[in-house]
From TrEMBL, chains A, B:
Reaction(s) catalysed (UniProt annotation): (R)-pantoate + beta-alanine + ATP = (R)-pantothenate + AMP + diphosphate + H(+)
Protein name: Pantothenate synthetase
Binding-site residues, ATP: 30-37, 147-150, 176, 184-187
Pfam families: Pantoate_ligase
Length: 285, 285
C-alpha cells in the first residue's frame, strides 16, 4: 500500500491503474477510521479493482466555532487499518496541497443544503461538495462510497453528481453501529463515559419511530413525539433537530406516505451527533 | 463526422477514443460558428487526436432580459463547417438532455465574476462555469479551447479548473478579427449595416490604448480617456464599461505596471459587444 501526499503522485497512480484497464473505487474520509469506514472500504474492494482512501480533514467544511482543531487525527493507526483491508493507496494531502491559493470556486447544491444540518452549519455542505469535487477530479474514480449515517450528505452528493454529470457512481452504504446501536462516528471520541452511556438513546428513539410507522402511525408530529420521549430519558441529550423529510427534496413531511428520512442531530456535551433511518409506510411489517 | 445528441452516446464515443489511447480536444460553443470558432477547432486539431465541438445554447447563462430566444442558430451550416475542419464529433444536446430536472447544483467562481461583464450580467458566469463543468464531465477532454475575445470568461474558467483540480488544460486562443478589426462574434449578426460600419471603433479604441501604453502612458485614467475619445466618433456606440484590470484578480488598476487587461463592453443597437487586449508596460516598442 502506498501513501501519496501530492496531487501529481495521485494522478500518476490513477493513470497507471487506468492504463491497465482497472476500475477505481474511492472512499473519501477525514481519517480517524472506524468500523463504518472499513465497511465502505470492503464494499469498494468488492466493486472495484483498485481502492483509494483519502484522508483529509477539510478545513472548508468546518464553521469558525466548530471542531477543526480538535478533530481526531491518527495517521499511523489509519494506515495500519487500510493496510489490513488491502487498500491500494491512501491519498493524504496537506491543506496547502489542496488549497494552494485562496479558493474562489465553490460547488453549491442549493435548497437541499439549507435543511437539516444546513440550518446550524452554514457553509458546511458547500465545503463538502467543493472538496468532493476536487477529490473526484484528482482520483477520477468509477465509484465513490459514502455512509448512510451522513444521510443528508449522501443525498447532496448524489444530486451534485447527477446535476453536474460527474462520471462516477455514488454508492451509499448502511450505517455501521456499535452493539448498543450507537452509529459509528469519529466524533464519538468526544463523549465522556456517562455521555457514551446515554448516546444509544438516539438510535433507540429512531427504532421506536420505525416501530410506530410499522404499526401504522402516519402523523409526523406523533412520530416526533415518540422520538422526543425516548431522548428525554437522558438529561445530557439536547436535540438540535428531529426532522421527517422527503428523500429527494429533504422538505418536511406533514404525513408519512411512502419513503421518508427520519433524521436527528443532538448535542451530547461537546459532541454533536447525527443519525437517521429511512422508513417506508408502504412496507408494513 | 458524427453528431451526437445524448450524453450516453457522447460518453460511449469518449470511452472508445480513450480505449485507443487517443487524446481529446474540446471546443465548447453556442453554435453560429464563425472564423473565431474555426481557429479554436484548428488549434484543437493540432494539439489532440480527436476533436469534439459542442453546440449548445445554454439557457442558464442568459439573464431574463437577454437574447436567449434571438441567439442565432444554424445547425446545418455549423455541421458543414465542422465537417470541413475534420471535426470528429459534434455534441449537440437538447436543453432537456442537459437539464433533465431542476438544476440545484451551481459552480461559482467568486470575486472574478462580480467584475466587468459580471456587473451587468448577474448569474451569467455562474451559468457558464456550471455548463462548462457539465460538458467537461461528459466529454472528459485533455484540452479545452476558449477565445481571448471572451477574456473574462477565459480567466474565470482557468481559475475554476485550477481551484477544482479539473483534469484538463485550458488553451486560450487569440481573438480572430474581421479585416477592419471587429472581433468575430455570433452577435455581430444583430448589427444593422450602419452599426456594422461603426463597430470597428471598439477595436480601434483598444489599439489606440495600446499605442498610448507603448508610448509610456501609465495612468489608466488617461488611457481610458483615449478610448472614450475614439468611441465618441460614433453616436451609436454606448459604452457599458471601459476597464483596465489586473490579469489575475480583474481588479481595476490605478496605474499600468506590467501586464494589464483592457476590456470594453458596449451596446450598439440591440447588440452588446465585448472586446479586449492585453498590454504589457514592461515591453515597450
Amino acid at each position: 500500500m502506498r501513501t501519496l501526499t501530492t496531487i501529481e503522485e495521485m494522478r500518476a497512480f490513477v493513470r497507471d491503474a487506468r492504463s491497465q484497464g482497472k476500475s477505481i473505487g474511492f472512499v473519501p474520509t477525514m481519517g480517524a477510521l472506524h468500523a463504518g469506514h472499513l465497511s465502505l472500504i470492503r464494499r469498494a474492494k468488492e466493486k472495484s479493482d483498485v481502492v483509494v482512501v483519502s484522508i483529509f480533514v477539510n478545513p472548508t467544511q468546518f464553521g469558525p466555532s466548530e471542531d477543526l482543531e480538535a478533530y481526531p487525527r491518527d495517521m499511523a493507526a489509519d494506515q495500519q487499518k487500510c493496510r489490513d483491508e488491502q487498500v491500494d493507496a491512501i491519498f493524504a494531502p496537506a491543506v496547502n496541497e489542496m488549497y494552494p491559493q485562496e479558493n474562489l470556486t465553490w460547488v453549491n447544491v442549493e435548497s437541499l443544503t439549507d435543511k437539516l444540518c444546513g440550518r446550524s452549519r452554514p457553509g458546511h455542505f458547500r465545503g463538502v461538495t467543493t472538496v468532493c469535487t476536487k477529490l473526484f477530479n484528482i482520483v477520477q474514480p468509477d465509484y465513490a462510497f459514502f455512509g448512510q449515517k451522513d444521510g443528508q450528505q449522501a443525498i447532496v452528493i448524489k444530486r451534485m453528481v447527477a446535476d453536474l454529470n460527474m462520471p462516477l457512481q455514488i454508492v451509499v452504504c448502511d450505517t455501521v453501529r456499535e452493539p448498543d446501536g450507537l452509529a459509528m462516528s469519529s466524533r464519538n471520541k468526544y463523549l465522556t463515559p456517562e455521555q457514551r452511556q446515554d448516546a444509544p438513546l438516539i438510535y433507540k428513539s429512531l427504532a421506536a419511530a420505525r416501530d410506530a410507522v410499522d404499526q401504522g402511525e402516519r402523523s409526523t408530529e406523533k412520530v416526533k413525539q415518540t422520538i422526543q420521549s425516548v431522548l428525554a430519558e437522558s438529561q445530557e441529550i439536547e436535540p438540535e433537530y428531529i426532522n421527517i423529510v422527503d428523500l429527494d427534496t429533504l422538505s418536511e413531511l406533514p404525513q408519512i406516505q411512502g419513503k421518508a428520512l427520519i433524521a436527528i442531530a443532538a448535542k451530547l456535551g461537546t459532541a454533536r451527533l447525527i443519525d437517521n433511518i429511512i422508513v417506508d409506510a408502504n412496507t408494513q411489517k
